Amino acid sequence: MRIDGVSRSLIGLLASIDYTEYDVDLFLILHEGALMNSIPAEVNLLPEIKKYRSILCPAKEVLTNGFVDAIFTKVKSKRQAARYVKQNKISSQNMVYPVYLHKNMAKVLPEITNKHYDLAISFLNPHFITAKKIKARKRLAWIHNDYSKFEFDKKIEIEMWDHYDYIVSISHDTSTAFINELPELRNKVVLIENILSPKTIRDEADRFTVSNEMHDEENSFKILSVGRFVYQKNFENIPAMADILRQKGIQFKWYLIGFGEVDLVKTEIYKYNLQDIVKILGEKDNPYPYIKACDLYVQPSRFEGKSVSVREAQILCKPVIITAYPSALSQLENNIDGVIVPLGNEGCANGIAEVIDDTRLLERLQNNCQQRNYGNESEIKKIYNFLAEN
Prior knowledge:
Layout: H1 5-16, E1 25-26, E2 44-45, H2 59-64, H3 68-88, H4 96-105, E3 116-122, H5 128-133, E4 135-143, H6 154-161, E5 166-169, H7 172-181, E6 189-191, H8 198-205, E7 221-226, H9 238-247, E8 252-257, H10 262-271, E9 278-282, H11 288-293, E10 296-299, H12 308-315, E11 320-323, E12 339-341, H13 345-357, H14 359-371, H15 380-388
Parallel strand pairs: 1-2, 3-4, 4-5, 5-6, 7-8, 7-10, 8-9, 10-11, 11-12
Helix pairs in contact: 3-4, 9-13
């Protein structure tokens, strides 16, 4: 439950459920992360099962816990994945190993519970665990990402998805990308957008001020990006973009919130001597006061399903810039409630500079966001409908 889009999306879903009508159990592999405190009190959090930690934890911890079969399973999965990648000559951006790992680990892991549910939801890929270790009348599994950006073992993927009655996609573009890759599963795909509550986000944004971390400096523009420091989010190229903005004479600070490959981003900051301009704020329990305090929100991703952070920034009436990843047009209306810029460093930086220099555009983006209702709590009714089916 660390600060990322998937975890915040899960919190949004859980917060929308009518607990006078439904009982909800939540199972997490790890009881860790800042968003643990955001799980609604009505949710029954099932106990952590130590052996499940073997999926995510390093080999040393797994051995210390005495799970030798889990170690063998991880080694076996890694060899299988490496063999498949080599034989099929696929890129490093692939989903082979995690799917193999979850499929094989399901054979050595205990049952999560002996309960029999009306509905089991697997919220994060891979989906073999919920398929194999939970008894349920119906099953849903979520897609959060653009399937066109990864390579995978199609046979194993279909085997995994076949366990589910429905495959939930978070945007039309995400659905299209998935169906293009796995057309056999077309009839299972349904759309349920990430559930966000504008009132909750605005209330959280007012909880505290961040002026001690995001200083108000005269004529200095505050840019913010929130996300994991991973390849998908493209944060390692932010220093290069910031250097271009600096060369244009723009006065700004670019703040980063998140976790992951922080050292890679730090290396790039030092490379461009931007220590006073690009600031890493780290992982935050509540990112909303920081979004409220920024002048511009930038999501420089290489690809997205549908960014939760972008929608949160729009709810807080911030001008938003995103890169032209394949699903960008499902995220916003260009030049209406956000701006789409090229993905390359120079194109992205030039786009940011143009927006910063256009005060009328900035004002229009803010006003349009203010006039729109980004709330979609009614999406939970789609899940209720699945429960009502025979």
